[in-house]
Amino acid sequence: MAATKAYGAQVVLYGTVFEDAYQEARRLESEKGYVFVHAFDDDEVIAGQGTAGLEILEQVPDVDVLVASVGGGGFLGGMALVVKSLKPSVRVVGVEAAALAKMTAARKAGNQR
Length: 113
Prior knowledge:
The protein is mainly α. It is about 50% helix and about 10% strand.
């Protein structure tokens, strides 16, 4: 957070869960005319996160398995897109904390997205 502030940004911490912060960000966007850039549901952000996959392939060209955090899905999605496109034989595994197992819950509910 300190580095973000050092670049001149205003940092707003709001609520106790993602949905609280998301709703506040959208409220500020509407109220103040800010531009909202979603942290994991934005094609350009996902593409940017995929560059980490490029770095892995450059540094570990014989990689067989890539393990990445699920979180909101953007990081894993970007990494998987790049790595599987360039080296389809790589197995990509998403992991998440048991306390925040949103992907597991979504899959159990039938949401494949």
